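Curious: explain these tokens?
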Amino acid sequence: MVVLAFLQVLLRNLFSYGFLWADPLLRYMVMWVGFLGAVIATREGKHFGVDFLNRYFPPRILKGVKIFIDLFAAIVSFLLMKAAFQFLFEAIGADEKDLFDLPKRIYFAIIPIGFGLIGLQFFFNVINHLRNLIYKKESQQKPEPPHTFF
């Protein structure tokens, strides 16, 4: 992606030429990579979070807070998935074509798919938190310190 974007800028600025398909392709690739990255980040627990709660709540209450937060995030993700499906089927016509003469819906399908996968992962997190709470499984690992840029 980086090479194609660099080549496109180079061709445009030096030779007043560029590939017509490169900009839309890059735009769709960024969207797909972004959503798939968000799914992976959610799966690995590296998504944006409220880590200051770890410092202010005792472990027993923190478990309940994590369940509530993940359940809320799952509900929001599923609502966003529903809205994305509405966008996909109401705002984009079935016969609208784009890059490489493919239906435009294919390119935007990652939006509801991504939100659905993110919502599922949050729901699985809720199940795991509840299972750990019921079986009183204390985590064997220490919580990670907040990540910094330095």
About this structure: The two ends are 27 Å apart (CA to CA). The chain has a mean pLDDT of 84.
